[in-house]
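Hey,
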Amino acid sequence: MRRGKGKLATIAVAFTAIVASTVSVGLVGAQAGSAATASTWVIGNIGTYSGGNSSNFIGGNLSLEAWADYTNAHGGINGHKVKVISDDDAGSPSTALNDVKQLVNNDHVLAIVGDNSGEDASFQSFLTANNIPVIGGSTPLTSFFMFKNYFPVGTTSNESVPDLLLYAKNVLHQTTGAYLYCVEAPVCAQLLPVYQGAYNAIGGTLAVSETTSVGDANFDSQCLAAQSAKAQDLEFVGPSFELPGIASDCNTLGYDPTLLNEDVVLTPALATQLGSSAAVFASDAFPFTATSGPAAIYHAALEKYEPSVLNPKTFTQNDADSWASGELFEAAAKAGHLGNNPTRAQLIAGLYKLKGDTLGGLTPPLTFNKNKANSVSCIDIVDVDNGNIELPQGLTPYCPAS
C-alpha cells in the first residue's frame, strides 16, 4: 500500500496523560516560519504497518509525516520542502522488496528514512548493493550494525542488548535469562545470537530460548521451560500484544521473572496490562513518553499533525525513533549542503561529517565511520512499575563499558 503522505487507518484516541503538558504550549513556543519555497526533496519510508507483526512498527510512518509537516511549516530545510512517500509491506517479504525497488528506481528517493520493516532481510542486499542510505528507523534491526549504508538513529542492538544486560547485572543483580522470540518475522530469530553473545560477554547465561506464535493458545510451555532453567530475566522479541499474555501465564504458574526488553514492544496500554510484573526496557533514542526538553516539540507536533499516533494501544518507541530519523536526515542534509539538485552521495557525505551529534539531545552521540558498519552505544532506561512508565534516570543515558 503506497501513501504519498503515508497515512494508515488508525483510531484517533487522545492520550491525555502524556500530552497534557504539551497542549497548552502549542508548538512549545516555536513560531511558524515562512513556508518552504525552494525545490522539494523526496524521501522514502518502508514499514510493516499492517498485518500480524505490525504492532511494533505501526505509526512510525505517521510520526515521520508529523516531522515533515512541522519542518515544512517552519521553513523546510534551508528552504526546501520534504515529501515523504511511505509504503506498507504488510509483513510480506516480496511486497517489501518491490516497495523498496519502487521507491529507489521510480520515485528516486534521496534515502530510506525510517526502516520500520520486519522484512528488512528481503531488501537489505538491494539497498546495500546500490549504496542507498538508510537513515534511522527501528534500530533493533541487525542491518543497522552490519552494513555500511545503514545509519542508526539510536543504540544498535549489538550495543543495547549488552548495555541492558549489564544494567540487569549491576543494578538488579540478575545474570540468567530466557529468550522468547516470534516466528512471524526474521528479525526475531536474527537477534537470538545477539542475546547469546551478550550474555557470554557479561559473564551471564542465556539458559533457554523458545519460539512464540500469534496462534499460541497460551505460553505455558515457554514459561515452564524458562522456569525450569531458573531464568531470572525473560527477554521477548515479537508482536507487543503477546507480552501481557506471557507475563500473565508465567505468573499463574508461579514464575515471576523480570521482563527485560528492547523498548520497541512497550505501549502505555501494555504497561497497564502488565499489572504487577516488573519490567525494564532499553530505549535506543529518547524515550517515547518523555515530554520535556527536545521531546516537547515532538509531542506537540504529533498532537497537531498526527494525533492518532498517541493512541495508548499503539504508541511505541518506534514513533520516537521515526521522528529522530527525520531529524537525522535534516542534520545530514545541512552538513552535506544539499541544494536544488541533491544527490545521495552528498547526503552520505553529510552523514560522515556528524561527530558526536545528539540531534539536540534526542539521541546518544552519533558518529558515522566512512565505508564501515556503524554501532551506537548507550541506552535510556525505562521502567514499568505497577502499570506506570517511569524514567529512573530521566534523559541521562546509561553507558556501561560494553
